[in-house]
Amino acid sequence: MSGSGWLADRLIRRLRASPTLFALLGRVLRLVGAGILFIACLVVGARRFAPAPALGGFLDPAHGVWSLARTATLPSTAAGRVQHLAGDVTVIYDDRAVPHIFASTEDDAYRALGYVVARDRLFQLYVQTMAASGRLTELAGARALPLDREMRQLGLTRAAERMAAAADSGPLARTGRAYADGVNAYMREMSKSELPLEFRLTGTRPEPWTTLSSYHLATRMGWTLAYFSTEADHAAAAAVVGSRAADALFPDAVPIQEPIQPNGQHAARFDFHPLPAPGTPDSSSTLLAASWDTFFPDRAYVDDTPRSFASNNWAVSPGRSANRHALLAGDPHLDLSLPSIWYEAHLVVPGKLDVYGITIPGAPGIVIGFNRDVAWTFTNTGADVLDYYAEHVDNAASPTRYQVDGVWHPLELRVETYRGPRGQVVATDTLYFTHRGPMRRARDRWVSMRWTVLEAGREIQSFNDAAHSTTARELEDVMARSYMSPAQNMLSADRGGHIAIRSTGRYPVRPGDGKGNAVRDGSTSASDWQGALPLSSYPQSFDPEQGYLASANQQPIDPRVARDWWGGNYEPWRALRINALLRADSAVTTEQMRAFQTDPGSERANLFVPYFLAAAKSASSGTVAEAGRLLGEWDRRYTRDDQRAVLFEEAMHELVGRTWDELAPRGKSRRVATPTSAVLLELLSDSASTWWDDRSTPQVEHRDDILRASLAAALATVKSRHGDPSSGGWTWSKVRFANINHLLHLPALSALSIPVQGGPATLSPSTGDGIHSASWRMVVDLGPEIRAWSTYPGGQSGNPLSARYKDRLSHWTNGELEPVRVPHAPAELEAAHRSAELTLHPR
Amino acid sequence: MLITLALVFVMAAATWIAGWVGVAIVAVVVGLAYGRAGRRTWSVALAAVVAWAALLLVDAASGRERDLLVLLQGTMQIPGPALLLATLLFPGLLAWSGAATSSALSRMIMFRGVP
Q: The whole model's pTM is what?
């Protein structure tokens, strides 16, 4: 008899033996009901139904989300095992939760670094890698497809794979593998209750770390810092107002010169010239503009000026410091996040390595910091290292070959598959590559892109080499040997009293006029880059006579000194401010170095406000006079309690819109590009320029007419938005904030609406959306024993429940820095300054 | 009463060792035994709820449970009490349904002297 037949037989016997049919029916129903409920509980327990996580593992109090309460704080002592360790590694966490790693070999130090970074920032490692490798759809589904497409279609993921493969045999691979050993060792030992909250919420698990993951991070940093096409602004403008006007609106050189490489001047130089009037649209610029729209589909401006990077660094030589030591300060500005992009650490291998600073989770090395002899920090150079080529292909619909110098070459085809959270295919793309780089369709043409970010390779090693430098000169030369992209203005200072700066990167030498502001003919090799600028041509300075160096993303070199193409849309205001502050004081203290980082003064305001006030003086309108009076009360400082900056910013917004109305094509309201405020100031020096005429009115306006109209409109808007000037609604802290979003943009895990000091173009500028600001602040005193102070907006732990998640935020908000502890050996760190210890043993 | 108390410890231990699945396993096994003995299965559910409540208290000893509740509330947009209720309801339902299923099956399949 079969199984089911046996069961039916038993059932029938039971029916006959049962006192009532209904009782048995009840039992059957109870069984079925209980069974269904049991299965349902099992399914709900085991399976995620987005957005809800799988309930069983999530709610389990032993290992689920509730157990995070037990693991929020690192235990005071702990141990771990790491593969390939040569010996034990001691990690002492100080009272700022900075791990001080003491190892016997450098490889072991990097293994330990990987371990502690994973311990504190595991989810950040994971989500950064997913973002950088174009795999966010596996986390967030189809809505992340545009982000993933951008990473892959720009060739970043392919570049990372090639870099990782090329590095496999060198010392860089060893460091990368050591770091991976550490990360993977932590993941192996991590208990279920230590799994970060974000993994539980998203239903994901961390993946094994590989050296490729570090390269994805590197290419993504290149995308963050070197992916812009300033020539596109020029082309877009030329397509509307003609090339001659566009040349002046988007000039090769900034009209206000305060370059990184000192040029002997004792004040900023204003190279102002009348701007040519708007001319006939230039149709040949159309292809470049279309190319740009293809590669930058979501172009948007922040405020009314192009988004510009806002990092600063400066150094003073002993002759200009109060304590006769070289001093160095650095504050790189990036999009803020919780946890922070930076992680503070100290690596010691006695006799070989002793470096303190910040690393990016995923990068096997210290990026910015100091050793016992030298300190270094960077700002973004913002050079144009990206060019377009119109390619000649065999088939416009489905190309397989492209032609150069009459010879057909096969295109490299790469099929990219985007998957969803359950592994399902969300989309596929076929990507094309020429020898120059990724190729995409721009209207009816195929355009390829060459970009140094896709060709870089040894940046990670360069940081590790720099950590061994003993002088500023040596550090600069070490970086110049192997660091290519993204180009950085590398500032250094040493205990010998030397200061130095060099804009280090790889700068292509272009044929013809050397500029990168045109789409070149891809059918000829004569269009290709002809090499790179020699080191001697890099903007640089060593121990300048002026006794200080400063970079704030301004033009690197005076065009009167060298006319190499830099191509950036440089704004000079922060450079003007820091140079003015450093020039004014020949005995700078470390406290002043700190204060400068959040200085609320603005050279932009100092130069623009007088024009508004002069125009308001001759006003017949009471509104303009009132606006002028209110603006005249302003001290031009963006402090949190300031009551007038809001009026100035609105007036500037109005001025930009009214001045550059010619840059909106007829019938459209949106400008195709916006010149820098430096160019706007240049125009202000020409009161009768035709640019002042408002096309929408029958009369011809001049400068002061536009200034007055801007003031009037600004006052009306500000009153409407923020109330009466005396109501308190104009307070700057109610208008401008920092917004530090969690990696998943969960408000409960973010720090939002933080009132900050600083405004557009101050040394600590605040963007309108508040997401971009000083990601790190550091001051270093290069005395006989190095002293340093630092902070960043967040905390060392990526665990939102940890007391170290955002414990530094108040210091950062108030512009304060904490002293840094730099013990030579574990015994030097007193018990009162320790928070935890970790010992790593060989596995 | 003693049996139920013992079940609480077993449920807690099973959860600690095997996670939430431990509750299901213990419930099914106990349900089979209860079915043979003709006992009610609601005590299994009670044991599971009490076990998880006890484990929650262990977590709460860290002093961070309240902060965690606030965090989860803000992140998941679900009231904290609802989350706690779900945490206690889930093992109760899982345990009862598992025990009831195995108990009923046990009674139906076991030989009871039917000719």
A: 0.92
The string of DSSP letters for B24-74 reads: HHHHHHHHHHHHHHT--SHHHHHHHHHHHHHHHHHHHTTS-HHHHHHHHHH
What tens digit of pLDDT does each residue of A55-103 get?
A: 999 999 999 999 998 888 899 999 999 999 999 999 999 999 999 999 9
- Contacting residues for A19 by C-beta, under 8 A, at least 6 apart: none
Q: Are A55 and B90 a contacting pair at CB < 8 A? A: yes
Residues B62, A66: C-beta atoms closer than 8 Å: no
Please report how the helices B80-109 and A3-17 are oriented relative to each other, as an axis angle in degrees rounded to 10. 90
Closest residue of chain A to B54, computed from CA coordinates: A61
Between chain A and chain B, the number of residue pairs with CB atoms below 8 A apart is 132
**What are the tens digits of pLDDT across the range A477-516?**
999 998 999 999 999 999 999 999 999 999 999 999 888 8
In chain A, the residue whose alpha carbon lies closest to the alpha carbon of B67 is A801
CA distances from A56 to A44, A71, A716, B91 (A): 7, 19, 58, 9
Query: Which of A17, A38, A801 is facing B101, going by the closest CB pair?
Result: A38
Q: Is B29 on the interface with A (CB under 8 A)?
A: no
With 0-12 / 13-18 / 19 or more C-beta atoms within 10 angstroms meaning exposed / middle / buried, residue A592 is buried
Separation in Å, CA A590 to CA A142, A314, A322, A732: 50, 12, 8, 28
Residue to mutate among B64, B78, B89, with most A CBs inside 10 A, is B64
Annotate A312-364 with three-state secondary structure. EEEEECHHHECCCCEEEEEECEEECEECCCCEEEEEEECCCEEEEEEECCCCC
**Half-sphere exposure of A129 toward its Cβ, with a 13 Å CA cutoff?**
21
Q: How far is CA B88 from CA A56, A200, B56, in A?
A: 11, 19, 10
Q: Do B20 and A70 touch (CB under 8 A)?
A: no
Contact B40/A at CB under 8 A: no
d(CA A231, CA A250): 8
Distance set, CA A217 to CA A124, A153, A213, A359 (Å): 11, 16, 6, 12
Give me the torsion for CA of A636, A639, A645, A650, rounded to 10°: 130
Q: Inter-chain contact A65–B68, Cβ cutoff 8 Å?
A: yes
